[in-house]
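Here is one chain, start to finish.
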Amino acid sequence: MKNLSVVKKKIKKFNRHHSDRYKRLKKNWRKPKGIDSCVRRRFKGRTLMPNIGYGSDNRTKNFLKNGLFKVRIENIKELKSLAMSNKKISIEISKNISSFKKKKITDLALFMDIKINNPLNLKKN
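Its structure:
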């Protein structure tokens, strides 16, 4: 894996056609289905539609630019199972867990020498 360069083909998200024009349309991608739709017909200069060609290389999928493999963690048990591969991975603490558990996971990850992508930032007043 060291000699493969990590290439992310498309970093910008695909936005829904006319989502910038109307507030009632959210930005989430929806495939245009109209018979006269210029986006569906792929006219030059129009919104690009997602297709299989934008996918990442399977050998480098979920890799970060620094070459580490990104893994999402939701509890301490998952973190302990990654103990042997601490030099190859970088963890991302799940968003929907409490700050108490995040603190425990952060402490254990620092002890195990695992890099954290979104470390816990405690605001000090």
